[in-house]
Design brief:
Chain B: Keywords: Cell membrane, Membrane, Transmembrane, Transmembrane helix, Transport. Chain B: This is Carbohydrate ABC transporter permease. The complex is a heterotrimer of chains A (about 325), B (about 350) and C (about 350). Chain A has helices spanning about 1-65, 85-90, 105-135, 140-150, 155-165, 175-180, 190-220, 225-230, 235-265, 270-275, 285-295, 300-335; strands spanning about 70, 80. With about 325 residues, chain A is mostly helical. Chain A has a two-stranded antiparallel sheet. Chain A starts with a helix and ends with a helix. Chain B has three domains: about 1-45; about 65-125, SH3 type barrels (Roll), CATH 2.30.30; about 135-345, MetI-like fold, CATH 1.10.3720. Chain B contains 15 helices and eight strands. The radius of gyration of chain B is 30 Å and the shape is elongated. Chain C folds into two domains: about 5-230, P-loop containing nucleotide triphosphate hydrolases (Rossmann fold), CATH 3.40.50; about 235-345, Nucleic acid-binding proteins (OB fold (Dihydrolipoamide Acetyltransferase, E2P)), CATH 2.40.50.140. Chain C has helices spanning about 40-50, 90-100, 105-120, 135-150, 165-185, 195-200, 220-225, 230-235; strands at about 5-15, 15-25, 30-35, 55-60, 65, 75-80, 155-160, 185-190, 205-210, 210-215, 240-245, 250-255, 260, 270-275, 280-285, 290-300, 300-310, 315-320, 330-335, 340-345. The chains are: A mainly alpha (about 325), B alpha+beta (about 350), C alpha+beta (about 350). At the A-B interface, α1, α3, α4, α5 and α6 of A face α2, α5, α6, α7 and α8 of B. The complex binds adenosine-5'-triphosphate and magnesium ion. Adenosine-5'-triphosphate binds near residues 13, 39 and 40 of chain C.
Chain lengths: ~325, ~350, ~350
């Protein structure tokens, strides 16, 4: 193992080392000219330049963009319309009937995403918690079992989508199994409710291992002697779970829930490859809506897409702040101990 | 064997069967099936011929129809097992008309028999359609897609490691005005997903002329706040005295960076490198937006385009899905320990 | 080669003045030790000389050249750190070679220098190991070796022995002294162990709160401390210091004891502090000092007696052998008046 590592290290390091040496003399000169602050600037420049152009600038432009209309791509060429795009997104004649909304697609996507978030996160967290609890039972071959659950996490969303599209195909293996058991085959991806459930199930399949792993780390951090003390007191296992395990796991659990929410709100690639948003609009989610309005549809409306993404960003920022606050709180607790 | 049984029947506390034991077994047992099953099924299916793929119910293993070369016929003839009043025998099909097939006994090629097709099943054995893997590379653009994916993954990871580590170095080892501001800025943008800035990012990338260029895919992803954050946390643990010793040793600041700090940050760099490779290999939405010409597609975009065609050629699509999966599976097999430790430690994905 | 001069060096971190104007000359080939209580600015001063920090004001000269604006690398000095600061990812050999490679020295020359230093420090068998595989003492030698190969104009050592156990510290102390004799190079050594300072130094610089209290040879410091602080700081156990009123050639303490002063020393009448080293007290029936024994530390060849003289005045005496004393006993002590130190109301030495 070390041999492999060292060989790999040498292979990567040799050309880089050569490059670094090449830069040595010019940078020494620069250091003489510009001093230590000049070197700090040099070290920061590449990352911060890219960061500014491709992360910060878009964030700022996005707001301006959402207040313009037209098909032109560049901001200066676009027409200012104030809050019209937001109004268009949010205006409905009758809020009990989404079909009366001006952008009914947005509302459908919003409703679908909302339903998806609630169902997917609930099921995902429950499944991840159960998995973590089971893995924490001092199993033998823990690393094997961990690998079992973790395996899909690294797969690309496109691969995940295609794997399941193949399995859920009308003539796929799942229907074959149903028929084998004497049941009727199901049109998994062509019926609204089945397709929606499939999107939930597949995303859970793909991310379960990640969340179980974080929860497992939390479980493993609970001191063993607490359990031993409870055992000495003759506490019942169920009570141990509710009174010791769950409260001590809570800080981790909250972070995991928020993280799962953040991911679920942005759901796109797996579902898109799996169902393409269909049948009809049954699995049209917010990110896909933004993608289609902004890039894919015939009547592109980048301003509208920007407005929608700002609304989505707002939700995400709230969730992120929540997560940072929770993380901060955990850190403080950790320090107190 | 007894070890396996011992393992399988191990229970909580060692005595009696608790309901939790049963539950654990059911959960883990189905997990192996549900987690590994789909990927295995994909691999099996990817070796099947188009005809076999359209069979229902599908067979577990890929099969190939047996053929024989029969005297008097130019091309090899498919073999069938025939069962009728005359008993069971193996015949080769010459021609089929409606529900009746003209068949010959390979041993006795001159006598043509007429067999109802309901009375016969093809003779086949396990065989792999390697063509599923070769054709997309030879006849379609998958070789280009693969090259593009490798280029994007490799270059993006290298740039990520370089720029992130340089920034992390400056932010952890130097005192300068505005340092706190930059750090806060980076932490604040940790969680801003691409999907929120799609539209303006597209206009910027197109403004610098990188639409339909692999660089347009690479650049927006390399300044990851996550990477800077991770590396900075690690570099903060390197004692400043080492840097001062190097300064006394005539080292320039640049040398301190690459001869002292970088080697000592190797564990964190490895974690970031692994994640970066997986991220960039798997990226989908952004490449999908930036790349609209076939010759610049990455594998993920290419696969999606292929899967979106009216007549999906599943035999090629499945094989290419397997190809796309391979690097990630390799990373998983060899570096699992690194990754799980990295996630548990940082919540990074 | 190796004369270091400091002119009015000042350093502030924000509003805190850490160094308050330091003037000092370290001569060529001299081994100078900085001592002082923790936090007095020893490391800060050393880092300033090294060039790792810039003084807020003042000038540093090496061999007559002003090096204040120069960076650490260009001052030709070498430093040994308290934590050794060996590069953990490099072998011992690479650690020693690093600084030389940076000056583009030919490889052959580097190899000879490393071989020479390794022989001198007896670390030849360790050259291919990494710092993590060495003991504390071995790391110490490597750190010194890394400084030696550079052939610096001066060595700067910041508490290089404080991470070693007591026994190793004593032997390394001797080795460092021997090394200094052999190399003949200027060395500045920081410590807060005064035994280390006394045994190694050509001259000692006593620092307190960012100021130089006294610069002198170890024996002069011991025999003629310039002020109360140095008197109390140098020597173990610490000097007896008693406040009293001088009157006509002797001093009256608060408890009434009348103590004679050295003959020929003109002390104006008024408040003074009298200092006598514990080693200079001896039993004397009817002597001027009477005290009640509180604690006896019998060390074998000598005994340290802690006693009370009343009115809050304590007394420490180091008596030869193992005197037959019990706790609570009253002892009477005398001394040679010539061994007494007298300090005025401003804390400065009189005479
Ligand atoms: N970077 C800094 N910022 C603010 N104050 C500092 C800094 N470095 C040192 N100080 C302060 O300067 C004073 C002198 O520190 P220095 O490290 O020189 O002490 P020292 O004499 O070496 O002590 P020790 O014997 O404990 O090593 C201390 O009070 C310390 O708190
Ligand atoms: Mg110090």
């Amino acid at each position: 193992m070390t041999g492999v590592k060292e060989v790999l290290g040498a292979v990567v390091a040799a050309p880089l080392g050569w490059l670094a040496r090449l830069l040595d003399t010019p940078l020494r000169l620069w250091q003489r000219l510009a001093g230590q602050n000049g070197m700090v600037a040099f070290f920061l420049l590449p990352n911060m330049a890219i960061f500014t152009v491709f992360v910060l600038l878009p964030l700022v432009i996005n707001i301006a963009y959402s207040m313009t209309t037209g098909a032109a791509l560049f901001l200066p060429e676009r027409t200012y319309v104030g809050a019209a795009q937001f109004e268009r997104l949010l205006r409905c004649t009758d809020y009990t009937d989404l079909m009366t909304c001006q952008e009914d697609q947005f509302w459908i996507a919003l409703r679908n995403t909302g339903t998806f978030v609630v169902l997917q996160v609930t099921l995902l967290i429950v499944a991840a918690t159960i998995t973590a609890l089971i893995l924490n039972r001092a199993l033998r071959a823990l690393s094997f079992w961990r690998a079992v659950f973790f395996f899909p996490v690294l797969l690309s969303p496109v691969v995940v989508g295609l794997i399941w599209r193949w399995i859920l195909d009308r003539n796929g293996v799942l229907n074959a199994a149903l028929v084998g058991m004497g049941m009727d085959p199901v049109n998994w991806l062509l019926e609204r409710n089945y397709a929606f459930s499939a999107a939930i199930g597949v995303t859970i399949w793909a991310h379960l291992g990640f969340f179980a792993l974080i929860l497992l780390a939390g479980l493993q951090a609970i001191p063993r002697d607490l359990y031993e003390a409870a055992e000495m007191d003759g506490t019942k296992p169920a009570r141990v779970f509710w009174r010791i395990t769950l409260p001590l796991l809570m800080p981790n659990m909250l972070v995991v829930i928020v993280l799962a929410l953040i991911r679920a709100v942005q759901v796109f690639d797996e579902a898109y490859v799996l169902t393409g948003g269909g049948p009809g609009t049954a699995t049209l989610f917010l990110t896909q809506y933004i993608y289609e309005v902004g890039f894919a549809s015939l009547l592109k409306n980048p301003g509208l897409a920007a407005a929608a993404s700002i609304l989505m960003g707002g939700v995400l920022i709230v969730l992120t702040l929540l997560q940072l606050a929770l993380g901060r709180k955990n850190e403080r607790k950790g320090k107190l101990k | 064997m007894s070890r396996v049984m011992g393992f399988l029947t191990r229970r909580k506390g060692g005595t009696g069967w608790d309901w939790t034991d049963v539950f654990t077994f059911v959960w883990l047992g189905s997990a192996v099936f549900i987690m590994f099953g789909p990927a295995l099924w994909l691999v099996m299916s990817s070796f099947k011929s188009p005809a076999q793929l359209s069979e229902f119910p599908p067979t577990l293993l890929p099969y190939e129809a047996q053929v024989v070369t029969v005297e008097g016929y130019d091309r090899p003839l498919p073999l069938f097992s025939v069962t009728d009043e005359a008993g069971t025998r193996t015949l080769a099909e010459v021609r089929r008309v409606g529900t009746v097939a003209q068949m010959v006994d390979p041993e006795n090629p001159t006598e043509v028999q007429r067999i109802n097709i309901a009375n016969r099943t093809p003779v086949r054995e396990v065989g792999f359609s390697w063509g599923n893997y070769l054709d997309p590379f030879l006849r379609f653009d998958f070789l280009t897609y693969t090259k593009n994916s490798i280029f994007v993954t490799g270059v993006a990871t290298l740039i990520t490691l370089l720029t992130n580590s340089m920034a992390a170095f400056a932010l952890s080892k130097y005192e300068f005005r505005g340092r706190g501001f930059v750090v806060v800025l980076i932490i604040a943008t940790l969680m801003i997903p691409l999907s929120v800035i799609l539209v303006p990012l597209y206009s910027i990338v197109s403004g610098v002329g990188l639409i339909n260029s692999l660089w347009g895919v690479i650049l927006p992803t390399v300044a990851t706040p996550t990477g800077v954050f991770l590396l900075r946390q690690y570099m903060l643990t390197i004692p400043d005295e080492l840097l001062e010793a190097a300064r006394m040793d005539h080292a320039s600041e640049w040398q301190i960076y690459w001869r002292i700090v970088l080697p000592l940050t190797a564990p964190a760099l490895a974690v970031l490198a692994i994640f970066s490779v997986v991220w960039r290999w798997n990226d989908f939405l952004w490449p999908l937006i930036v790349l609209s010409r076939q010759e610049v597609y990455t594998l993920q975009v290419g696969l999606n385009a292929y899967a979106g065609e009216l007549n999906v050629q599943w035999h090629y699509l499945l094989a290419m899905t397997v190809i796309t999966m391979i690097p990630v599976v390799l990373v998983f097999i060899f570096l699992q320990r690194f990754i799980t430790a990295g996630i548990a430690g940082t919540g990074l994905k | 080669m190796g004369r270091i001069q400091l002119h009015d060096i000042r350093k502030s971190f924000g509003a805190v003045d850490v160094l308050k104007g330091i003037d000092l000359t370290v001569d060529e080939g001299e081994l100078v030790v900085f001592v002082g209580p923790s936090g007095c600015g020893k490391s800060t001063l050393l880092r300033m000389i090294a060039g790792l920090d810039q003084p807020t004001a003042g000038r540093i000269e090496i061999d007559g050249t002003d090096v204040t604006p120069r960076s650490a690398a260009d001052r030709g000095l070498a430093m040994v750190f308290q934590s050794y600061a060996l590069y953990p990812h490099m072998t011992v050999r690479a650690n020693m070679a690093f600084g030389l490679q940076n000056t583009r020295m030919p490889k052959a020359e580097i190899d000879t220098r490393i071989a020479e230093a390794a022989r001198m420090l007896e670390i030849e068998p360790l050259l291919e190991r990494r710092p993590g595989q060495l003991s504390g003492g071995q790391r110490q030698r490597v750190a010194i070796g890394r400084a030696i190969v550079r052939r610096p104009t001066a060595f700067l050592l910041d508490e290089p022995l404080s991470n070693l156990d007591a026994e190793l510290r004593v032997s390394m102390r001797a080795e460092l002294s021997a090394l200094h004799d052999r190399l003949g190079a200027t060395m500045i050594h920081v410590t807060h162990d005064q035994v280390e300072a006394m045994t190694m130094a050509d001259r000692i610089v006593v620092l307190r709160a960012g100021k130089v209290e006294q610069v002198d040879t170890p024996l002069n410091l011991f025999n003629r401390p310039a002020n109360l602080f140095v008197a109390g700081f140098i020597g173990a156990p610490g000097m007896n210091l008693w406040a009293g009123q001088a009157k006509g050639g002797s001093v009256q303490l608060d408890n009434g004891a009348m103590l004679p002063l050295p003959v020929g020393l003109a002390v104006p009448d008024g408040a003074v502090t009298l200092g006598i080293r514990p080693q200079h007290l001896r039993p004397q029936a009817g002597g001027p000092l009477q005290a009640k024994v509180r604690l006896i530390e019998a060390l074998g060849p000598e005994s340290v007696v802690h006693a009370d003289m009343g009115a809050g005045n304590g007394l420490l005496a180091v008596l030869p052998g193992q005197p037959d004393l019990a706790r609570g006993a009253v002892i009477e002590l005398g001394y040679d008046p010539q061994s007494v130190h007298v300090f005025g109301a401003d804390g400065q030495r009189l005479g």
